[in-house]
Amino acid sequence: MLKEVGQSFLGVILVLGGVYLLYLFISSLNKQENILFLGLFFLLVSGGVFLLIRAGKSDTVILKRTAPDVIDDVQSLTFGKEKLSNQLAKNNQMLAEWTKTNNTKTMMKMLEISSEEKKSNTS
């Protein structure tokens, strides 16, 4: 936990330092161009963002390290073969109902258009 907090803090410091170097680069454009500021800016910001992303993704690592058997129990409950086959059957049934409803809606629109066309032809 302390490692992730430290990585986050260091990432924020690196990003802020990179922004400050960008400010220094922009302010030095009138006097002389110091391309070193721009290069360091890219290095610091990319390093800071890398650390922030790495610390942000560590929640699953922490959970797996602290309670691996709990995670295995939860995965076995939610990803059992019976549960997946039941979910697949429900999904297929919902897809069939949706297709039937969509076809009915399309047919109703076609009937409505044809009836409006007949009305306009008879007028």
Protein topology:
Blueprint: H1 2-27, H2 35-56, H3 58-66, H4 68-78, H5 81-122
Helix pairs in contact: 1-2
Q: What shape does the CA trace take?
A: elongated
Strand content: under 5%
Main sheet record: none
Structural class: mainly alpha
- So how many helices? 5
Overall pLDDT, averaged? 82
Radius of gyration: 30 Å
Count of separate structural domains: 2
Structural summary, described in words:
- This protein is mainly α and 123 residues long.
- The chain has 2 domains: 79 residues; 43 residues.
- 89% of the residues lie in helices and 0% in strands.
- The protein is elongated.
- The N and C termini lie far apart (79 Å).
Quickly list its features:
single chain, elongated
Compose a concise summary of this entry.
The protein has 123 residues and is mostly helical. The chain has helices at residues 2-27, 35-56, 58-66, 68-78, 81-122. The chain is built from 5 helices and no strands.
